[in-house]
User: Fold this.
Amino acid sequence: MRPNNRSKDSLREIKIEINVSDYAEGSCLISYGKTKVLCTASLDEFVPPFLRNTGKGWVTAEYGMLPRSTHTRMPREAAKGKQSGRTVEIQRLIGRSLRAVIDLKKLGEKQIIVDCDVINADGGTRTASITGGFVALYLACKHMEKKRQIKEFPITNFVAAVSAGIHNNAAILDLEYEEDSDAEVDANFVITGNGKMVELGFTGEESSFTEEQMNQMLALGKKGVAELIEMQKNVISHNG
Amino acid sequence: MRPNNRSKDSLREIKIEINVSDYAEGSCLISYGKTKVLCTASLDEFVPPFLRNTGKGWVTAEYGMLPRSTHTRMPREAAKGKQSGRTVEIQRLIGRSLRAVIDLKKLGEKQIIVDCDVINADGGTRTASITGGFVALYLACKHMEKKRQIKEFPITNFVAAVSAGIHNNAAILDLEYEEDSDAEVDANFVITGNGKMVELGFTGEESSFTEEQMNQMLALGKKGVAELIEMQKNVISHNG
Amino acid sequence: MRPNNRSKDSLREIKIEINVSDYAEGSCLISYGKTKVLCTASLDEFVPPFLRNTGKGWVTAEYGMLPRSTHTRMPREAAKGKQSGRTVEIQRLIGRSLRAVIDLKKLGEKQIIVDCDVINADGGTRTASITGGFVALYLACKHMEKKRQIKEFPITNFVAAVSAGIHNNAAILDLEYEEDSDAEVDANFVITGNGKMVELGFTGEESSFTEEQMNQMLALGKKGVAELIEMQKNVISHNG
Amino acid sequence: MRPNNRSKDSLREIKIEINVSDYAEGSCLISYGKTKVLCTASLDEFVPPFLRNTGKGWVTAEYGMLPRSTHTRMPREAAKGKQSGRTVEIQRLIGRSLRAVIDLKKLGEKQIIVDCDVINADGGTRTASITGGFVALYLACKHMEKKRQIKEFPITNFVAAVSAGIHNNAAILDLEYEEDSDAEVDANFVITGNGKMVELGFTGEESSFTEEQMNQMLALGKKGVAELIEMQKNVISHNG
Amino acid sequence: MRPNNRSKDSLREIKIEINVSDYAEGSCLISYGKTKVLCTASLDEFVPPFLRNTGKGWVTAEYGMLPRSTHTRMPREAAKGKQSGRTVEIQRLIGRSLRAVIDLKKLGEKQIIVDCDVINADGGTRTASITGGFVALYLACKHMEKKRQIKEFPITNFVAAVSAGIHNNAAILDLEYEEDSDAEVDANFVITGNGKMVELGFTGEESSFTEEQMNQMLALGKKGVAELIEMQKNVISHNG
Amino acid sequence: MRPNNRSKDSLREIKIEINVSDYAEGSCLISYGKTKVLCTASLDEFVPPFLRNTGKGWVTAEYGMLPRSTHTRMPREAAKGKQSGRTVEIQRLIGRSLRAVIDLKKLGEKQIIVDCDVINADGGTRTASITGGFVALYLACKHMEKKRQIKEFPITNFVAAVSAGIHNNAAILDLEYEEDSDAEVDANFVITGNGKMVELGFTGEESSFTEEQMNQMLALGKKGVAELIEMQKNVISHNG
Assistant:
């Protein structure tokens, strides 16, 4: 039995509250069960050097965890003077995922920085960051469209992410922390609104898995992302 | 006229929501108007080296701002690889202020780390951090008392903080960002529940002020802190 | 047509030269075509703090590129004062992959550090590092067995890695740099000697792909790894 | 009784030796008793980025302690790779204090960097740095005036600083190290030549104090600064 | 007796294999016995700031050791986040030595970066780096001459380096690690093709030596360098 | 003609003022003409890890320049967050030189840290640091002997250092900044009280020199050091 009697192919309770920031061009607070991530999308008039004078824009992401978002307090990365390998890996993944669904030429020579800050961590912070980060990015683009800072809406598709894993030999969807730390295999799926794959990662830390298990996890991931994208569409449609 | 028709000696709307973190021993989300700070107090079984085997404990604080807590996005300190001078100055102030109202011997050889993370910044983030940080610290001590991790309750007094300043030649209480960036003089008051001073700082950046103005600001600060401590007492009394 | 008339499902020329280091407990120089990586496995009597007094050992990996292993010289990470996100991501992947095929209890409270240093880079440096890193690790364990530093041989399986991708709409195996920089999708496969999966990663940078394409790449990956493991077995059998 | 039979409201012996540097535009060696600080003011043709093309100049300060300026040797900050929070706090204070008495428009688009390096530390290094830093800044401006690098003399007022504290329940002026480390309350006063306040800071580390005590310290601070400004005027009048 | 019955005034076996890098403008792999250094010379179109618009070029060097080039594994400098004092000292020496034999005006406003990466260390890595670094630099200049990127060949002389020392009271040439760690005095000689001195360094770590011993070492150094330069000339004459 | 009509083989005016620090176990302020270095020797009860439980002590040195010790202000190394290669090279040289004249076993398991801080720089700061650093070290050992912290006086010999160079084709002693920046060859000599060599370094930056020139410089260096050691003996004999 999963915690809260959840079935193997169910998501946790998902909530997306939009426009939570007073200043960001786009923002939301997303929850996957007890995991809560604040996502803001900020417009920056400067693109990275390799894009200057190309007419193309950029989308990048940064990820952080508040020190007591976790069961035991984690040292603050700013105080340690560097971001951990895990942080860097996650923020690179978020950035690549979001760039897969935006036409950077239509964005023009501007940068959007999506910050994903974990307020409470209970497993799935990277997938919640992608799903929520997309909402913040979408809202920022809508804001820019309204302000006539862009000519054409640059978002080409929806994108969301979810985890799956093998736990006690069974494939399960959207692992929470307790399940995650016990899982034999851990997988993450980033999939678009028309069912195309953006990033798939399967990791058997100190373990391995079969192709059949891989396919079971993939089926769960597709189901989970489809549901998440419905929720994204729903909240976005209520944006004034 | 101040924004929202506030009178010169009024605080902004103050809200303190307690026990907002699933994991921290004590926590609150404090608002001074649009300024919002998440404060968590975490118990750490290890004290700093200079206190080992002394029987005395320690309270320290860390401060951070989310990148888009501000009007324009600030670079993330973890990405830059170091904390700014301003951050270090503020977290040292919070730590000193909280240590003034706790008996470190009663705490025993334990450390409590108070994290103050600014979700939204509209002036007064350091004073809100002290007022909210105290609430988190108080709740953490109550939690430890209940768990019998301490024998005697170590908190000796309440403490809260507020700013005042000289703006358009008049002394005003609890400045918001727009006022703060225009103010001729900026002051911060950290005062205890029995009206004793813990830290007073008056700063005339590129300017100076008279002793009379100093006394006007001090009067406002005393009034503001007294009101804040009433609110602290009120929310704490509702802690289950 | 691929460079050198290579067919879509062919590996580049693979070479593995063993025992190339005078000092390392295990070592090899591995080539995937023009990509060359020097892999050394070093025994360290100290395990990381979280394993002290557990009786369990650890395997970790570090990855680096010589400054002129690339077409244009890259700044030296030691001179810049930090490892890039890409470096950290790759060395975490190598470490996880190797830990999947070793019984850390049989290793005992020892650490083996596998260094993968790229001498020449022409695509596939991370997959060559895993395949070569495994050979170095295997030889180090053999060395320790001979010296009676371990009681039981701890390696539980072979492991190797290869890339595949979608290039001009076709799935191809083991991409070299020129192909890689043009590919629509990039995938990496870490698979064991008995055909079980350890790590699978599919990345459509600024693009997406179908499930059918995913399966084509996976088929290539399985074929490629099977061939690589044959070569590993062959060179190891010649170790004196 | 204070060391050397000093009365409660007396400064230590103050010495200011000017033009001690062969190269700096302005310099002095200031002593407050055994505390000795070398202050140099250096003209820099470049202003910080936020002032470019504004016609305004800037004054900034840096502070350091020689490793054996203290009773026990302190690690060198350059070797540790970062400045402590205390160092950053002090140099920000010195910079703000000096900017309060200079008209940055009259300075023109130039920067003056005031370096305060502690040769010997016996309490009061930050206040000696402000008093001596002002003398160095003044002399540098005189030098620039003579060289016709500025049109109008930009200094608008004198400024000096001194500490006071509560020690054995009595307010005392200009604490030396032995007193400082025992003091219940520590205060610093930065006051101009016409008696206006620039920075006042009262700190009751792990303690608190009354408004009456605050006023006693303030009275001492005003007296001490007035005497220090007389000495500044005296040495400056002897500058050739 | 020296290892391998080497006589006191003999070099170890020297090998220089040229053009070992697929990408570098010039490269070689040099061996002094078991010491092996990979040297690459990379053309960089940008000179350091102090040479911009002067028409003069620059030659600089960087030095690194692979983690397991040594008997016991050394921590990777990129992972530690800084280069050791020894590394910095050696790369400054290599750069100065190479700049002594090139006409920077003839090079034009270009930079050549010589990377010396130690694959295997058995004493004498800095001298092998200079001798091999010169070969890489020479070949890079030949490459640029052929590509008409320079008008005149800028190399003005050959240069090579060797160590000598006092070991068991006798002067010996080209110390290997075992001798080096026992030697009373250690010396390094950088000498040109026409017998002029470029850098001479004599170091009696925790010891001292006489002028006569100095002259014995110098005689060995001159003999060793002369032989090394013959070998450089020989390999370079075979460059296609 | 040299500045101040100095002859080719003359030192600048040398001054050594001892016991200038209130706290250091040994100290002096040394001048070579306008070059001034404050040298302090501090006793530290802890030796570096590699010497623990060996009964042997250690002497190490650190070197720094005050920001405005130079003609144009240099950025502070503490603010930049790292020591330059030049700083590291110099402090390693000072440490090696001092360790050559002390019996580390007689010192016992203690460390002496010699800090050399340049107050004013006019050429020769590293040689003045060695000469003055020795005086500080000697006085610290005398202090420890008097306090019975050591049984036998551990200093085995005097040591001092001076520079020489080739300037306008002539060998000259003890170069000041103006000469140094023009010199074709630069050399440094560290020699003991009985005329034995400790460190000799000859550097022809972007140039080379003959053996005859080397011998001319060496003769000057020997003469200069002999005179410096006379002065060391003289000031030390006046130590109370």
